[in-house]
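F.,

This is the one I mentioned.
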């Protein structure tokens, strides 16, 4: 019973919706080395 309650708490849609999605925003390309740039995944 306790495991089921913990599962419901962890998988609650309200908790998932409350998380910030800022980490999914695209990043501008940036220089890593002389001629090496990060442009995205």
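My design for it:
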């Amino acid at each position: 019973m306790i495991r089921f309650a913990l599962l419901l708490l962890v998988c609650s849609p309200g908790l998932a919706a409350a998380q910030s999605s800022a980490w999914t925003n695209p990043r501008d390309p940036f220089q890593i080395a002389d001629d090496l740039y990060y442009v995205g995944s």
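The helical segments are 2-10, 13-17.

Talk soon.
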